[in-house]
Amino acid sequence: MEQPPRPPSVKKRLVALFALLIAAAIAAIARASSIAASDIAMPRYAHIFVIVEENKDYGQIIGSPDAPTITRLAQEYGNATNFFAETHPSEPNYVALVGGYTYGIRDDDAYFCRPRQHDPGCPGSDESGYVNHTVDAPNLATQLQAAGLTWKNYLESLPAPGSLVASAGLYASKHSGFINFLSVQRDPQRARHLVDFKQFYHDLSSGGVPSFSLVIPNVCNEMHGAQGPGTPEDCEYFHLGKLIWRGDANIAAITGRIMASPVWRSPQNAAIVITFDENDDDTFIGCCGNDRSDPANRGGGHIPTIVVTNHGPRHASDSTPYNHYSLLRTIEDAFGIREHLRKADAAGVVPMVPLFR
After folding, report:
1. Which residues, 6 or more positions from 295, have their beta carbon under 8 angstroms from its beta carbon?
2. Are the C-beta atoms of 54 and 177 separated by less than 8 Å?
3. Runs of H (alpha helix) within 169-286
4. Other C-beta atoms lying within 10 Å of the C-beta of residue 308
5. Where along the chain do its domains lie?
6. Which residues contact 273 (CB under 8 A, 6 or more apart)?
7. What is the 8-class DSSP label of residue 35?
8. Are 298 and 292 in contact (CB under 8 A)?
9. pTM for the structure as a whole
10. Contact 298/284 with Cβ under 8 angstroms?
């Protein structure tokens, strides 16, 4: 008489289950292959402030008598001595910082521009290779919101909360970064996310700052400069030393307000990053996901980047090659976000752990 098949032993069932678990773990590792030991080593942060200045080379700022505050912070806290921008001119670097790529943008045309759009804000729209300057893609804002975290883009001289104006007075939307993303333009809470410095200082004093703050001074206070009747001498393009001095004094005021705020005195980790969009010599030098064959991602020169933490390193100097993609990856890791956007996931792009740990 044929015997019925015997059920597998408990041992065999456990072996089969263990094999399935191993296979699942291998698959998970494959899916998360971009997560390196350095990402895991990045400590968690409750608040990160990124302040972006304009158009200065590392050597024009660090050690300069016109930039005593930034030089002091670099010496006392953390100095990324080998940090680069993505390209020239300004706008694509801001997009790269919050989006992980320049998305082909290689000029300073308005965020609403598209190919062959004949608008005063889009002077290059007939050029070959011109791209839509509004990007429909994930970005740091969508990542933070998906993780249950908060963000704001603090824009000095913004005409009104949530304003979509391209430029007004000393405000320029090309220095926002977030405004280039369709998700931000269509955000029903846009007026709470794009705000001016009055709101910034209120949030600091009340302890109500978001998880991530992108802080953009106006064109006189970020070392960009201006020209024309009524322009203060220390804001004019051609008075470089005075322009740097003004921007450095502004950094002193902003960092002073942050470091006097409740979030800085908290036991939770907080950091201030002072970086620049690009240097001013138009040489295409970069690293870490930059590509000399890509006109929108060729490297934007050597720029200063300083990391100030409330509980982290002191007197730290880090010569690791970094750029804005590295900074984005660092922010993602610090908030526990393991999906790295575009070039933040590229070979050679690593988080800035030594300046935050």
Report:
1. 87, 106, 129
2. no
3. 182-185, 190-193, 197-206, 240-259, 262-265
4. 24
5. 44-355
6. 48, 49, 50, 51, 305, 306, 307, 308, 327
7. -
8. yes
9. 0.90
10. yes
pLDDT (tens digit, 9 = 90+) per residue, 60-110?
A: 999 999 999 999 999 999 999 999 999 999 999 999 999 999 999 999 999
CA distances from 190 to 16, 149, 179 (A): 52, 15, 10
Q: Which of 264, 263, 253 is nearest to 207 (CA)?
A: 263
356 contacts 45 by C-beta, under 8 angstroms: yes
How far is the CA of 161 from the CAs of 1, 134, 193, 274, in angstroms?
Answer: 85, 20, 8, 24
Q: Which residue has the tokens 């997009």?
A: 95
The CATH architecture assigned to 44-355 reads 3-Layer(aba) Sandwich (3.40)
- Cα separation, 21 vs 2, in Å, equals 35
Q: Outline where 90-167 has alpha helix (H).
A: 91-99, 140-146
What is the identity of the amino acid at 289? G
At residue 269's C-alpha, the angle toward residues 265 and 274, to 5°, is 90
